[in-house]
Amino acid sequence: MKKEIEFTINGKHRKIIVKSNDLLLNVIREDLGLTGTKYGCGVGECGACSVLVDGEPVLSCLKLAVTVDGKEIVTAEGIAGDRLHPVQEAFLKYGAIQCGFCTPAMVLMGKALLDENPNPTEEEIREYIKGVLCRCTGYTNIVKAIKKCAEKREKL
Question: What is the DSSP string of the chain?
Fold first, then answer.
């Protein structure tokens, strides 16, 4: 069974026909060509497929596309405007990137956390990002980047 859904993704209104069992991850990657959202485990364990739906982190490999009808989605490609988002800048500045596979999801998690809690502790940052697995960095620089981004924003 197919259904037409409408949503906004990265600021652009989209209308698309999906099957009732299409996963949001596949629609984002295959139908819309936004490959920043990664396929990792396919069972919601690694977090690489995380996107923001109405500002909340969601595992797109577990989310049916039909459930985002009328929603706003942000992927890694949509976090920046004319320049890098402050979280992206902090990831670059503090070396929070190695292989880059988890980076899009980590950046989105950092943004969502700072939107929710503008001045998180290190413990709160670690708790918030724990659903996105990183096999390269040991998380230290990721936590540092998010914390430094919060401190910089606080000074503005």
Answer: -EEEEEEEETTEEEEEEEETT-BHHHIIIIIS--TTSPP-SSSSSS-TTEEEETTEEEETTTSBGGGGTT-EEE-GGGS-SSS--HHHHHHHHTT--SS-SSHHHHHHHHHHHHHH-SS--HHHHHHHHTTS--SSS-SHHHHHHHHHHHHHHHH-
Model pLDDT for residues 100-144, shown as the tens digit of each residue: 899 999 999 999 999 999 999 999 999 999 999 999 888 999 999
Report d(CA 133, CA 147) in Å as an integer. 19
- The predicted structure's pLDDT at residue 154: 64
Sheet holding 72-74, edge to edge: 12-19, 2-9, 72-74, 50-53, 56-59
Q: What is the pTM of this model?
A: 0.94
The CATH H-level (homologous superfamily) assignment of domain 86-155 is [2Fe-2S]-binding domain (1.10.150.120)
Rounded distance between C-alpha atoms, residue 49 and residue 38, angstroms: 5
Q: Which CATH class is domain 2-78?
A: alpha beta
